[in-house]
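Request:
You are asked to prepare a plain-text protein record giving the amino acid sequence and the backbone structure tokens, at your earliest convenience.
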Amino acid sequence: MILAASAVRAADWVPKQPIHVIVGFAPGGTADIAARIAAEAIQRRTGNIVVVDSKTGALGYIALKSVGNAPPDGYTVGIGIMGSLAVGPVVPGTQIPLDLDKELKPICNLVGVPMALIVRPTAPFKTVPELIAYARANPGKVTYGSTGAGSTNQLGAELFAAEAGGLKLLHVPYRGGAPAIADVATGQIDIFFANISEIVGQISSGQVKALGIASKVPNPMAPDLPLLTKDMPTVEINNWFGVVGPANLPADIAAGLSKLFLDAINDPATKPIMDSRGLVAIPQDGPAFQAQILKDRERWAKVVKQGNIRADNN
């Protein structure tokens, strides 16, 4: 009876002042979009004000550090992404200015966005089998871009290469997704794995060609793209975006925040907004989100080891 009463009280916490969500990436990016969709849905549903603040730099770790240092009162949380929470910790050489497991508490996972495989318009391969055959016949000549060594773009390409039978591809790191996509469009590099939400415009305009999406289900933003998982079931890359708070956040506040954000994401009125951005709901509470982080660390650690990837190999 005491445990049941405690669970009820934990779910009853509600904010009495604005909540600040700190995003470690530039406005207009997927992390920022996910935060703003949740913020607007919370305000629409409850009247609670949620303010989205940007604090960019260091692969999002500057923002996460500020979240870890914030008062554990529920009014400062951050967006934790797969690249920062699951990939960075297993890539040798990654500079992480905080102990992710000791300074942060996973509150809930929110949304994911699958990655799409795009290629230069003039590429001699028009399908995934043709790309694999070309790369196999020309080892080390097919170039792929990334947003830096150890990024999810690089790991996506390395996972694809491994699952295609150990293709030898040439890595070309960039300082961001935009210049990499631009170089695919102009034919400077051959392929790039990008969040579907960030390249659907270039696909529609014909600037780049998409060979497939790393998902088990069609994405509403590009429903006609072939599924890479049809022939390579393990090539499913769904970049997720969740909510984290200070490690010593009380259980009742964490539970209240989780309910607030998950109710917003699960609201039927939110779905068409997410669909228009290529986002898919991943409504995981704190324990499930923590399990997802650990599962993905194990998964990507294997890819990192297989590809001999280091964050300082730029």
Q: What stands out?
A: The mean pLDDT is 93. The beta strands are 19-23, 50-54, 76-81, 104-119, 143-146, 170-173, 191-195, 209-213, 238-246, 280-285. The two ends are 57 Å apart (CA to CA).
